Amino acid sequence: xxxxxxxxxxxxxxxTTRRPPELDPGVDFNGRFQGDVYEQxxxxxxxxxxxxxxxxxxxxxxxxxxxxxSLADFFEGMTQLAAIGxxxxxxxxxxxxxxxxxxxxxxxxxxxxxxxxxxxxxRIYGTIRGVMTLVGNNLASGLRxxxxxxxxxxxxxxxxxxxxxxxxxxxxxxxHLVNQDNPLAIPMVLYGSNxxxxxxxxxxxxxxxxxxxxxxxxxxxASNIGNLxxxxxxxxxxxxxxxxxxxxxxxxxxxxxxLSKTLxxxxxxxxxxxxxxxxxxxxxxxxxxxxxxYGKEQGFSWMKRVGNLMTLGSPHQGASLERIxxxxxxxxxxxxxxxxxxxxxxxxxxxxxxxxxxxxxxxxWQTLEGRNVLPADFRHPxxxxxxxxxxxxxxxxxxxxxxxxxxxxxxxxxVTIESALGEHSGEHALAVPEGHKAVFYGVNHMNLMYSKRVxxxxxxxxxxxxxxxxxxxxxxxxxxxxxxxxxLNVVL
Length: 492
Known about the structure:
Distance between the termini: 53 Å
CATH class of the largest domain: Alpha Beta
Strand order of the largest sheet: 1-3-2-4-5-6-7-8-9
Shape: globular
């Protein structure tokens, strides 16, 4: 399928997207863009947009299934990253230099900018980039060759401190690492409780824990306060807990597709798995939702075994911090002489950009030029599978129940209560019963992973496994759960 032409604006997206007449002969798609936007979206059909852009997806599943990063990979990747970093900084410095020289002379226009690279100053910057790229690539290739020739009998694993550093780097610039084929790019791997990739045969019930931005599978066990995975094993003895590790800097939808394939491989290799439950913290909840969306679209059989989806502080309607960062970047780009500094904002990963509005589908970004996402009102909904029981958890820094807008906006310091509970006035609202929503007061974003109150509620839902939902006259489905620091749970 040929690649579709990128659209410059949202108007172009709707004006140029056409469904073949034979698929819908009763609709005239050649008319001008008019009327209500959501009516146009319904006419275009969401799934069709995903199919249209499927050929453009950065499907790096082959990269995602390679071996975990070794110590040799770390040194090779850091060498390459250092060189690329110099090149990126050189680009920014050159852009600022170019603007300072040309703008006062009234020559900061397309004509003079196109001739810049041929001038003396432009050639100097080009030489610096070329030399640094050559040196960096040669050093990285030399390290790789040396490691292959040495052929160690045992591959040395990264110590925990370096693994945390690598996960942070992937969160900040993970998509850049993939595009540059950097060994530091984290593959998608399911780990067992022993800290090693899952290889043993599995049966029965499986719970998959998905971490958030810049974290790793180790993050679930990083606190002495609580260990959700261990608590699940202790309370549900016949259940296996797996820890997902993935590159949080890649597009959420790409990670979602890869997780769907990873879970299908897990089921193919372990046909005795009876049920799969997904629990995601922050971005991990969005990746889990995306995997459900694409698992259904791909017709994978693992989808039929999913019982529960639980998200902890996941920005289903977007994260305020990313929206603020994007707003600041746009304002800086409009300032004379400082506009080139906006390039610094482009260094942040595509995964972070997807958090702006909680985008989990390819169609939210694939038709756009550059590293961007559609505006909030134009993103495409991803409805939850009807057979999956979904539970949404939100945290808030305040310790008491106050019906105020400030309390809701404050949220857990990173995600608002409404966003974490998937609440929206339009089609993006997640259809989840009120009894499947819980707000934990006095718990910040990170502590949602370790809070004893949160862990207790998750265990309760897992043990219940939807049984109370089928009880006649169950009014709890209509009542949201509110948990306070006093350990007293009150249903309001």
